[in-house]
Amino acid sequence: MAQTTPNHTVTVSGWAAHDSSGKITPYTFKRRENGVNDVTIKILYCGICHTDLHHVKNEWGITMYPVVPGHEIIGVITKVGSDVKGFKEGDRVGVGCLAASCLDCEYCDAHQENYCEKLQFVYNGIFWDGSITYGGYSQIFVADHRYVVHIPANLAMDAAAPLLCAGITVFSPLKDHGLVETPGKKIGVVGLGGLGHIAVKFGKAFGHHVTVISTSPSKEAEAKDRLGADDFIVSSNPKQLQAAKRSLDFILDTVSAEHALLPIMEMLKVNGTLFIVGAPDKPFQLPAFPLIFGKRSVKGGIIGGMKETQEMMEVCGKYNITSDIELITPDRINEALERLAKNDVRYRFVIDIAATSNN
Ligand code: NAP
Ligand code: ZN
């Protein structure tokens, strides 16, 4: 049932999942009118993140149907509220995962809105006015401007869309660990998917030695030739795992499904950090021995703050980093979700939303 909230008068065409079958169908719904702090965005492109798939299938048990997924949103501003600063009509902008936060806690004050307790997401969230949020698999978006970023002029809009979630999610941990400014470390990336392949590009741009740890031997050549990875370890190969023990300073785990942490932790040097951003539905087993014998840390994080997201965009502009994408029309979203579930994408599906638009 579509929600009815006062001021939600803007009719929007989009695509929604109505149950956990994994299927998306066209869906018309209402968004709020453009408020004083809002910008209205004509969506041109939206990436398909694995988080969308987790939600569509209710794998985390938190989906409020109908869900309109999509948090890698790129488009052009068509309307600007009277209190908005820094944005104007015609600007190329992006919206990621954040729709709202309290704007008043220690984390919001420190530009870490992503850790605000009252954080709300752009879909499957509850906005300040009590409405359920609908994401970017749709033609129009209304965003509070504090959760909008500018897209550097040299980046292609379609290939830049995945930066809004995949990009910032892997940039933030690298930044947090001093790996954006200081080169020469040995970094591992587990899972060469949407997040993982951008992590490899960042790692190389920032001057590190990058090792991919993957379940897919077929990705080795392109990981090295296209993405510039230095080493490639197949996680089912005990010899390669053995040889890589205690070789890495920092590992970013982007895997979407259950997997063993033990061999990954053993690849860390003493004092190394395993940073988990992948979000499997089942809990990890955390073995004590590789922790205590290597003084290693395991931690996690969610996306990044808005200031950092803008900074990441500028860095991508500087190094010309975008996602490798497969551009699809909206009638192929279901096919894309099926292929994403089967790990059959290089490396991000992006929906060409405007391809179906009437104007
Ligand atoms: P993706 O494109 O599907 O990539 C995930 C990769 O994990 C796959 O390409 C595959 O790489 C590997 N993988 C898949 N199944 C596996 C299995 N059973 N065992 C081991 N490895 C497996 O997904 P994504 O969009 O990058 O997202 C990855 C995860 O991050 C998802 O869980 C998503 O929800 C989460 N996420 C978290 C945040 C955050 O803020 N923390 C933000 C965005 C996404 P190989 O073929 O190389 O093994
Ligand atoms: Zn995402």
UniProtKB/TrEMBL annotation:
One annotated GO molecular function is: zinc ion binding
Q: Which Gene3D superfamilies match?
A: Medium-chain alcohol dehydrogenases, catalytic domain, NAD(P)-binding Rossmann-like Domain
Which residue range or ranges hold the Enoyl reductase (ER) domain? 19-351
Q: What are its cofactors?
A: Zn(2+)
Give the UniProt keywords, A-Z.
Metal-binding, Oxidoreductase, Zinc
Per the UniProt entry, what are the Gene Ontology biological process annotations, in alphabetical order?
lignin biosynthetic process
Database matches in SMART domains: PKS_ER
What the record says about family reads: Belongs to the zinc-containing alcohol dehydrogenase family.
Q: What is this protein called?
A: Cinnamyl alcohol dehydrogenase 6
Organism of this sequence: Cajanus cajan
